[in-house]
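Throughout our pipeline, every protein is held as a single compact record rather than as scattered files. The remainder of this section carries one protein's record, kept here as part of the documentation.

===
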Amino acid sequence: MRRADWLKWVAAAVSLAAVVIVAINFIAEQREEPTIADGIRNNELHPPKEAAVTTSETVKFIETPTAESIFQQQYKLNFKPVTDALQPIQKVKASSVATDDRVRTINIDGQTYWIYTRPSSDDPTEVFIGLAAGSDLYDFGTIGGDVYAEEAAIDKVELFGASYMRLSGFCGANCAVDRYIRMKDGVPVQNIYFNFPTQIGDWNHDGQNELVYSDSSMPVNSILVRFQDDKLEAVSLMELLQAKGGVVYDSGTNTFNAYIPSSDKVTSFVFESGDKLVQNIK
């Protein structure tokens, strides 16, 4: 081979080698440059800045709401005076009740109560109750029907910060009579009457028992009764809460469970100072 041809061959080989080296370097540089377009592989190795760890604001947004963040419904209780529940006590001669008219005698706490009929009554099936004291009889009024005379009961309770005798009877399958008699020096001085079943409980959390009664059987309506400024007053809850399904008092927890059509579950309320009824979210 002539020298000139050999030199041309060497120059061509060197040029080809240089081209190969440049191509290899270019490919390597392309592989080292991560981009979003490279797909999942490069994103895992080199996550873009936009994929940073979730901020605290985002975490707060997805947190479950706490009890404190739930809106509490509140209602103002407008108590009104109660007059028809306070009945007079008639003091008559014990002899005015004939022996044959006495249906039953109940002895409790050293006192004697008579259950009796009145021949002059407009309803001959009605029976009455009174406290016998020597030659006198303190007549309180009706205690129900004669067929329920044996079911009448008397017990001693604490109510409105004083001791009362509770006289309970029935006037029908869904008809009840509850009386609360307050005594002073052995003499009855107060006669509270309800033609409905009542419950005793400290619903206003003042350390003393108050009353709750219902004025209908279905649905049950809870009516709060208390003594305020030496006056008996009450407020109805069913209309206030628009609870067409009724309002039931739980004396164990001092809560009022309202069945409101707009709610998919029972809504519980408690009494708070300032004559407010507040939703219980605990």
The radius of gyration is 43 Å. The chain is about 15% helix and 40% strand.
